[in-house]
Design brief:
The chain contains 8 helices and 3 strands; from the N terminus they run αααααβββααα. By secondary structure, it is an alpha+beta fold. It has a 3-stranded antiparallel sheet with strand order 2-1-3. Helix 2 packs across helix 3 (67-84). It starts with 20 loop residues before the first helix and ends with a helix. 37% of the residues are buried.
Length: 198
């Protein structure tokens, strides 16, 4: 079974004005689609055909000669996770279990915002800011390019923010900070985060 581009969990215009329909047309419809198409071509006829996305990512990460495969497989996973990390009328302070964990593990919501923006803003070039659960505690991390917590033993991704330029350039030009503010204040899907905590 070849991989297919997953549908967005909302309409392409539903995140506006924070992320425009035009951005999602390119980001989901072109970038994410290209990663899916490349992944399918690369695994066709190999022993990875029919494996899960996570299995492919882990196998490719362990083999330097499969860097291209890793990049495309990880970007398929990262983007799918990113779409679900957002929702219309999201953002702001969390509720439920994630709120308690942010308080106890990260020093409260205001500290989370500061550290999450520092991770996203401090990622030179392309990459991702992550909220992960590791050893029972929340942590904020960042990864370059297609790197993903999926390859890290004992890490469970809870939320991600894409800081590749194509995630925000049409809407915010070179102002990554304005995009990050919009993401945190208006888009974070805390229901998804609570679900990922288990």
């Amino acid at each position: 079974m070849a991989f297919s581009l997953p549908d967005l969990p909302y309409g392409r215009g539903d995140l506006a004005p924070h992320i425009s329909e035009e951005t999602l047309n390119y980001h989901h419809g072109k970038h994410h689609q290209a990663y899916v198409d490349n992944l399918n071509k690369m695994i066709e006829g190999t022993d990875l055909e029919g494996k899960s996305l996570e299995e492919i990512i882990k196998a490719a990460a362990a083999d330097k000669s499969k860097a291209g495969l890793f990049n495309n497989a990880a970007q398929v996973w990262n983007h799918t996770f990113y779409w679900h990390s957002m929702k219309p009328n999201g953002g702001g302070k969390p509720t439920g279990k994630i709120a308690d964990k942010i308080e106890s593990d990260l020093g409260g919501y205001d500290q989370f915002v500061k550290d999450f923006k520092a991770a996203g803003g401090g990622q030179f070039g392309s990459g991702w800011a992550w909220l992960v659960l590791k050893d029972g505690k929340l942590a904020i991390t960042k990864t370059p390019n297609a790197e993903t917590p999926v390859t890290e033993a004992g890490a469970t991704p809870i939320l991600t923010m894409d800081v590749w330029e194509h995630a925000y350039y049409l809407d915010y030009q070179n102002s990554r900070p304005n995009y990050m503010d919009a993401f945190i204040n208006n888009l974070i899907n805390w229901d998804f985060a609570n679900k990922n905590l288990g």
